[in-house]
Amino acid sequence: MTTQEKTFVDRCRDFLTARWTQVSAAIEAENFADPLLPGNALLRDRIVACLTSATKSYHYVLPTQVLCKCVEKRLDCHALQAAYRKPGAFDARTVAHDVIVPFDQANHRVLGGSSEPYVNNPLRCPAVIKKYRGQQKNKTDWDNLIAVLDAVENAPSADFARRVFDQIMAETYRLLAGVQVVYATPNRVSLKQTTELVGRFTADKSGGDRLEAVCTALLRAVGAAFGLFDDIRRQKVNSADAASGMGADIECWFKGKLALLVEVKDRSLTLTQLDAKLDVARVKRISEILFLAERGVDAEEKQQTHERIKSEFASGQNIYVSNFLDFSTGVLILLGEKGRVAFLGFVGQELDQANSSIVHRRAWSRLLKSI
Description:
Elements: H1 3-28, H2 41-51, H3 57-71, H4 93-106, H5 139-154, H6 159-175, H7 191-203, H8 209-226, E1 231-234, H9 241-244, E2 250-254, E3 257-265, H10 271-284, E4 288-293, H11 302-314, E5 318-322, H12 324-353, H13 358-369
């Protein structure tokens, strides 16, 4: 590879990183506007078809070809090889293998996990054009590739290529939701490592999802280690308890009976919230209620809340209020190292089972790798 080619590869890598960072951040912040909608909905659909094609090589062709066009507009994005013998022909394989493949590997192989996609049979031709349609088994998606590249190549404005590439990045990000994330749970973990890991994970806003996941995982670990519970149920975040049929965010069951209600709050606990949960507990005849409120009891209602808890004890209700760190520290000591490792594994399982956002699943995966 020449120095000039290396420079082009570096420019492609930088452009990809910049666009991926901006697009993914916008989607996560829920302020992303699809650049091809509504005016180019059919083109967007063709992009999705290429990225999800049964022919894995096509997953790599689309971002590679459009990326090269964005970085160097004089190139013909149809070209796969310099042998295309047309103005703007170039060898796209280097960019695919040195830029797109590492990107794919860094993002849970969302494109398919191929290490050398441009050496596969579908791409053993000079260009993505109709002339080579006959040698393609998947002619429908080959046509989709051609249509997208035609639109990019024939666009009057160079900005159109970037808009198409941003749409490719957005659809790739959305595909991550269905990707299985690998959680590299360590063989050993100390109490300090565990609490720091959970603290870092729950520090980012998630609408309560991360906190509920670690709470549920801890209760699963308790059930597995001590036999206190044989079933832990968690409702979807932001679902109303009544609508879900559950008495609280988390229910702990033992031998077919509801043993403990757990309400998780990433804010402070109010008297109104306490009273609402007490009504549910009475109906379900549950005497044990645990509130895990990260900011404790609401400061203005602290005295009233403690008086209510005291009076409810006299009538048979045991109410506990803590934050996750205080509650979990003692439990994690009792679980021991083996139990702590199991707990970390349960967090990943809970994130997958609850179909948590890819943002939270990837964050937990990265944190586990840091141990």
